[in-house]
Amino acid sequence: MKFRSTVGQAPMVGFCEALLQGIAPDGGLYVPEKFPSVDLTDFAGASTPAQVGAIMLAPFARGSELEASLPVICQEAFSFPIPLKSIPSDAGPLHVLELFHGPTAAFKDVGARFLAACFERLNGSERLPLMILVATSGDTGGAVAAAFHGRANTRVVVLFPKGLVSGRQEKQLCCWGDNVLSLRVNGNFDDCQRMVKQAFADAKFNQAVRLSSANSINLGRLLPQAVYYACASLNYWRATGEKLNFVIPTGNLGNGQACVWAKTMGFPIGKIVFATNENRPIPDYLETGNWAPGASVATLASAMDVGNPSNMERLRDLLPDVGKMRAAVSAYPVSDEDIRRQISRDEVARGETWCPHTATAAHVYDGFSETEKAQSWALVATAHPAKFETIVEPLVGHPVEIPDALARLLDLPTHVSDIEPVLEALIDAVK
Ligand SMILES: *Cc1c(COP(=O)(O)O)cnc(C)c1O
Questions:
Q1: Is the CB of 268 under 6 A from ligand 1?
Q2: Contact between 258 and 108 (Cβ < 8 Å)
Q3: Which residues does the chain have with pLDDT short of 70?
Q4: Minimal-distance CA residue to ligand 1 atom 15
Q5: Model pTM?
């Protein structure tokens, strides 16, 4: 399959090239030339994300260098459970799709591990060494560093905003060393994202290394994320004959976009609802039809503090008419006050300890009408609450147990450099 840039000024590329480039040379984001439509009978016997992924992603990788390895790549990427867990509800069937059982306890592990598995196989001797540049609002950087740490011929540079990630997230970003360089930027996430974009556009910087991104603008992150929506909806539909509806905590609109893509391909997905924090360009756009990205606002759900969600460009490319977009998705903002209340309440009411991001989804669900709630819903749990213990523990009144994988990382020594939010500082740091 070929992929085109959303800007439309760059040549179409194949699967591997789209992954390696990250962003198209015209500044656009790669999207499939045409979405394949799936025949659900092709998935007979496939029920795990690795099995579903190998079949579902095959058309995208067809004709590429990675076509034959796709099943193994999927096994490497989906090496941990992604359960759809039923939880108590006084209305219709309610579930949590738990995406946080990977090495760094957030859903970013899926895309990062898929990309690392692909890049390892692509990084042949005739190519320049790869440098992966990642701007992170918290979870991406840790997942990417974990996925690439120790791999040959690949360097990872992680930029994160000083003081705007949780203590445990920061630890996960800075516990690597070796081929991972962690940079604490004196700015916010938007500064980090801008610096990465500038580095890509800087000819000199691009001479000696082959730059790639592992942000959710990279197609290699989005496609595997579509797999868990496909897999959960397929298994649910087989068991009940019902479509599964999703409420998805959303920031840069990568994870949410992936669900839209899975539905576009024909998986039995019903409604798609985005929950944002007080960074509200997406809900505002759906309400007014006016796209007005702004500076990001700091909230309790910090991994969603994105003022200018990059992936909106892809969603608008797919659904250029705001009326059609409204029919396909909806979005609601949630305040910090409501996040706090939801975490305290559901600890008791549902016996669930939410991370602040997941709490936005639970809050949005609770605001649905009885008719809506009578349908089958899944709240998407994007991170383990132990990553945000300083927010969660006072609200639930007890320590949150730390998953083993996370506990191991927290014990490692720290490697980090502080830099100013300008391209020159980034160039100096990587020299
Ligand atoms: C990244 C992240 C989000 C937002 O995901 P997007 O793909 O940027 O929309 C939500 N929750 C957590 C825990 C995250 O790490």
A1: no
A2: no
A3: 123-127
A4: 139
A5: 0.93
pLDDT digits (tens, 9 = 90+) for 195-205: 998 998 888 88
Q: Is 344 helix (H, G, I), strand (E, B) or coil?
A: helix
Cβ atoms of residues 65 and 73 within 8 Å: no
pLDDT at 125: 55
Tell me how far the alpha carbon of residue 211 lies from the centroid of ligand 1, in angstroms: 23
To which residue do tokens 């903002």 refer?
333
The packing angle between helices 219-240 and 49-56, to 10°, is: 110
Ligand 1 atom at minimal distance to the Cα of residue 108: 15
Question: What are the C-alpha distances in Å from 324 to residues 47, 200, 320, 328?
Answer: 32, 33, 8, 6
Number of H helices, E strands in the chain: 20, 13
* Ligand 1 atom at shortest distance from the alpha carbon of 251: 9
CB of 347 closer than 8 Å to CB of 353: yes
Indicate the SS3 state at residue 341: helix
Q: Looking only at Cα atoms, what is the longest distance across the chain?
A: 60
Which of 378, 380, 397, 286 shows the shortest CA–CA distance to 332?
286
User: Rounded distance, CA 71 to CA 67, Å?
Assistant: 9
Check pocket membership of 353 for ligand 1, CB cut-off 6 A.
Answer: no
From the list 211, 198, 214, the residue with the least C-alpha distance to 426 is: 198
Give percent helix, percent strand, percent coil of the chain, each to the nearest 5: 45, 15, 40
Enclosing H/E stretch for 170: helix 167-174
DSSP state of 329: E
Is the beta carbon of 248 within 6 A of some atom in ligand 1?
no
How do residues 344-384 score in pLDDT, each as one tens digit? 999 999 999 999 999 999 999 999 999 999 999 999 999 99
CB within 8 Å of 58: residues ≥ 6 apart: 67, 70
